[in-house]
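User: Here's a chain of 319 residues. Predict its fold as tokens.
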Amino acid sequence: MPVLQRIKKPTTHKGKKVLLSKEPQVIENTKQTFLLKGRKTGGIINDCLKDFFSLKKPDAVMLSQKNDILPFEDASFLEQSGKKRDANLFIFGSHTKKRPNNLIIGRLYDYQLLDMVELGVENFTSMIEFKNEKVGLGLKPCLVFNGDLWSQHHEYQRLKNLLVDLFHRETASAVRLQGIEHVIAFTAVEGKIYMKSYRILLKKSGQRTPRIELEEIGPSAEMKLRRTKLASDDLLKTACKQPKELKIKKKKNVTKDNLGTTHGRIHVPKQKIDKLQTRKMKGLKKTSAERKEDRAALKKRRAEQEASGISTKRLRSQS
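Assistant: Prediction complete.
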């Protein structure tokens, strides 16, 4: 017999606002990420989680307590944690003899597991080991994906989408050149993924466009794809569905070429030129000389008609 759950309504104004903020929004807030540890973690995974937390701040929370869970066998704890903190992304770190230095990156949809990818960290260099200046807090990075695997292999395509979702912050309507200070590069070669993080330096070039230099600031990691648990195409399409209010309405007879130039097509119906009124239009009025010619032609035509009328009368009288 099914158990009916009682729906608890908020009793305060603050509680009502919290529940309304968790409901689906037309324009969603920046996705939050929570990072947690497994039953056992090594030094590499601890440093890796700290660096990912530094890259995601302030849109992330680090859970210090260790958790005896296996996400690929039971993801209920992750779903509950995401619902409790209103977070859609998670990073889980663990270390076992079978899977050393294990890193799991995943996301939730409607507080249910959507995608999950397991990566094995083989070589890792923390941000602390790079003795140089770092980027500012909360800066939106520029992501670069190198290699054919990102476009040819289905699992790498989904991992690319997951990484873009992980490092995506608020939507920017315009981009300023001086605001692009951080770039993260992911290179997929021969089954391995190399992650590099750089700070962009704008140098003088003697021209309007500055000279670009990259300075590695960390973290740097060499990872290997182990296991995946991906959502079906239909579920992913449902999760990526946009509300009607955000859909751009297509304008009829308006197109854009490759250079961004807008072209419009105008449909003009067939006009009745013979019935156009032209007497009151100044540009189409006759000159005085043309009016004299018209009057002279009219007198001549009347005279010819009168002469032809007299001749017909004589013929009738003689007959």
